[in-house]
Amino acid sequence: MEKEQWSSKIGFILAAAGSAIGIGAIWKLPYVTGVSGGGAFFLLFLLFSLFIGLPLLLAEFVIGRSTGKEAIRAYLQIAPKSNWYFIGILGVVTSFVLLSFYSVVGGWISLYFIKGLAGGIVQEGADYGALFGTTISDSTSVLAAQATFLLVTILVVAKGVQSGIEKASKLLMPALFLLFLILIVRSLTLDHALAGVKFFLAPDFASITSESILFAMGQSFFSLSIGVSVMVTYSSYLPKKSSIIQPALSVVGMNLFIALLAGLAIFPAVFSLGFEPTEGPGLLFVVLPAVFEKMVFGELFLLLFLVLFLFATLTSAFSMLEIVVATLAKGDRTKRAKFSWIAGGLIFLLGIPSALSFGSLAEVTLFGKNIFDLADFLVSNILMPLGVLLISIFVPLKIKKEVLRQELLQHSKAGSWFFHLWYTVMRFIVPVVIIIVFLDSLGLI
């Protein structure tokens, strides 16, 4: 049975970065930064990404590349006759839930693109907040858009790793960077733009709370697609002789760069145009049209950005569906298409309540949150950190130190110091940090 593989290192890096770069960096980070104090929160996010996210990303790469198997079977191979495979199950379940509400946002982007084609977004004096509220409260349109988004995701994943995911990632990821730069230039030339830059990059540590620390940690996991074994599955398609350090650094670097670009594109415009940085999940959909309204050929630029943002969102969706499909297919490529449709259909059904959370189910709340926000909180603040904690314990405990050294440094120019630093962080720092933040968030310390 022929094994799925990436055709090139750059293909893997772009696909893995595509998994990380999407709603996490472009949509969620700006609004979470806005409601969590600005620069201080972004600094926390950066530190968590480098000192917690990168070591954990390398840990998932080690698990996947060394076994050549997806989540669940990878853990079973390393620790047979044990219950550690639960980490893989947790990752599959988390990805399943995550994609159920992630696809809702993908649907919102699709609806905005359709409205933009009809010239129904960028209009002088338009109330973009009201437009966003009207769009996401239309239950029929939102469900249809969510289904369409998942349909595209299913079609790509069903075609396989090289012909589907890798080919798509190589096509439009570079274009996303280019258009972001264009948007930033325009945003920074608006009046009072520097106030937004200061809010985003100048830390105000007085605004830091235990909740914002937990959010920053959860966001670093969310943005790097770690804690759910997605990167275990993606790295399982790497050739045995490939390095994992350089791709990991590239993925983290690209993710942080995009997060920086997103903040520089959005917050100067927020302050310039009189919006509140605490706009919430609608920040991207409310502010960006107002920015493009100020630009020559604004409607055209908005359409291009929506296409590329939709692609970035899709590349993340590919990875979430891939971990589910790879787990069900167990390496049998002939079953990939069937399980892509089955998994995609079930995810759509699970996502219906989230899609209706701002429409016909707007009055339904649990623990003070609507269904969409509750699913988001469950994934970002509980399931992902739990997965990260278990992985940080599993790798030093169940994989021999010399095996870890060989896997990490194989075909890499990094010296033994890098391994010792990584191993120390994984064994002593990552678990302690996660446990402390958890206990603090629960009011137990």
From TrEMBL:
Any idea where this protein resides? Membrane
The membrane spanning regions, by residue number, are 12-29, 41-63, 84-105, 141-159, 171-193, 213-237, 249-275, 295-318, 339-358, 378-397, 417-439
Task: Write out the entry's keywords from A to Z.
Answer: Membrane, Transmembrane, Transmembrane helix, Transport
* Coiled coil (residue ranges): none
Q: How is this protein annotated for GO cellular component?
A: membrane
From what superkingdom does this record's organism come? Bacteria
| Pfam families xrefs | SNF (PF00209)
NCBIfam families (UniProt xref): Na_transp
Protein known as:
Sodium-dependent transporter
